[in-house]
Amino acid sequence: MAPVRNARVVFNSVPTGYPEPGKTVVYDDSKTIDIENVPLNGGLLIKTLVLSIDPYLRGRMRAPEVKSYSPPFTIGEPLASHGVGVVIRSELADVKPGDHVYGVFSHEEYNVRKSSEGLKVLKNEHNLPWSVYVGAAGMAGKTAYMAWKEFSRAKKGETAFVTTGGGPVGSLVIQLAKLDGLKVIASAGSEEKVKFMKEIGADVAFNYKTTNTAEVLEKEGPIDVYWDNVGGQTLDDALQAANVYARFIECGMISGYNTGQKPIHNAMLIVGKSLSINGFIIGRLEHKYNDEFYATIPAKLASGELKFTEEVTTGLDKVGDVILAVQKGQNKAKAVIKVADE
Amino acid sequence: MAPVRNARVVFNSVPTGYPEPGKTVVYDDSKTIDIENVPLNGGLLIKTLVLSIDPYLRGRMRAPEVKSYSPPFTIGEPLASHGVGVVIRSELADVKPGDHVYGVFSHEEYNVRKSSEGLKVLKNEHNLPWSVYVGAAGMAGKTAYMAWKEFSRAKKGETAFVTTGGGPVGSLVIQLAKLDGLKVIASAGSEEKVKFMKEIGADVAFNYKTTNTAEVLEKEGPIDVYWDNVGGQTLDDALQAANVYARFIECGMISGYNTGQKPIHNAMLIVGKSLSINGFIIGRLEHKYNDEFYATIPAKLASGELKFTEEVTTGLDKVGDVILAVQKGQNKAKAVIKVADE
What we know:
The structure is a homodimer.
Chain A: E1 4-5, E2 8-11, E3 25-28, E4 32-33, E5 44-52, H1 57-60, E6 80-90, E7 100-106, E8 110-113, E9 120-121, H2 139-151, E10 159-162, H3 168-179, E11 183-188, H4 191-199, E12 204-207, H5 213-220, E13 223-228, H6 232-241, E14 242-250, H7 268-272, E15 276-279, H8 286-303, E16 310-314, H9 319-328, E17 334-338
Parallel strand pairs in A: 10-11, 10-13, 11-12, 13-14, 14-15, 16-17
Antiparallel strand pairs in A: 1-4, 2-3, 5-6, 5-8, 5-17, 6-7, 7-9
Helix pairs in contact in A: 2-3, 2-8, 5-6
């Protein structure tokens, strides 16, 4: 068989504000790969099926001298994000052709990897679409589940405030909080997301673009648990509305990723209210909760006990557009790129 | 016996910046008390011996409509702070004349109290001066000991950064951190305090007024535990210098008590570094650690195993001056007002 196209998405330049499709990242279809003959050197060849587009990717689009929790992307090299692929060839004992694997994938149609390190073979007993394994049953779902377990110390009758409640992380947090018996206040940036948040059980759901967050919290709080995906003014509002002993789960601060983080003015309330504020990166919780996550969450997603939404866009060439949409909050649900059918 | 003077210190007006002696608080010696005949109504009469002057008192000098963790002082009424007194008369079964008691005292030479609620009878087996029971063996010492136990998760070989390390709380934190095997970086606002911090074991001690905090932390960090008594720019510097998984103990933010809190710019690092930030009010930890504190700390203070300093000023009329000195960091050690001899 002749070599086939192996298109990829390359990190082209560090953005100063929002990432620009075609400038920040560039789709490149000039490469090819000889699927049957490419040397594996003891490794494996994977065909990429789906890729996850997440808010945190903006943080990797930076100059290499800026330190952060995740390594910067390299100019001229492909992006990388969580994905699911199918194994085409394997010289490894623990992975065989036809297996579906989850892990961090290079943004290429085909990947040669030296080992199975960082890859999880998905059994998919519940017959979920593969896209779900990069969303509610993947990194996004783990983020919600593991940090809620680790940090919320939720007690029945308490009140939680969840930001980006229409997204893949926030929507699962809303449902976990309701299962724990909390009153849930949830915010998002569109009427469609507000409607979805109500459907999945939020007691109070509002559009932060048209409703004043501080006023909602003043009326519906105080809050005992705050799930922060946005930072900035909303974090200040949550500090103001916090109950004594409240727990803040700091998952992300997307309000500042592209336009600079707004300063926080209410930090003194951390002392006055005996607050507990925990930041986290999901990779640091996975060793503790991975088994229980896969044992429980995919089944609940398949049965409908836990609800999720996703917005699947077909084509590796759409990565740049979808990255921008996610940074602007214009995606309607968990953003997934479908790269190929099986 | 004729009535005797019962001088007091009255809260006179809400300060806008630093508290002003004679304006914010006023010494009033017009009152008298008939020690032998004042009706106790089943309670007790206490003669005030020492009173503690602490940074947090500034927070109680506010308009009553401003909410905070401690109630505001009432205009026209005496101040209150931790103190030790000797019981003169008692109609209670659990407290007898001659007992020394610790608790929150009204700023008066003599106090009639309805009950012994909130008072602890001090046995003083180690023969410490009573002033120590409002400092290293009192609220300040408890603050250091209990929060370090509760939140530091200190491991040998880690690095701690302690602010206001020359003060009663910070100096004990430095010593507890050294006992736990940490490298200790400590800051204070005078050369005298820097010298003291070195004497009690700080590995790196500096005067933040003449040395750049960020540069010290860049060189000597990263830091695993941050003891924050100051907030503002120093908190931002600590966020910048924090190691992953660092624990921040938020005890106070005196840099903003009189001039307004400076905003915090590095909050996003809470996420990126998986930080754990805990605010606290000592009253919320006492039930858990009070017995072990009194069983261990006074003995170590008496033996010299733990070192402390204090600056005792004689005279209830000096309260206003000492409050201002503490807010400005001009006190040389734990500030105590000696009201009377036994």
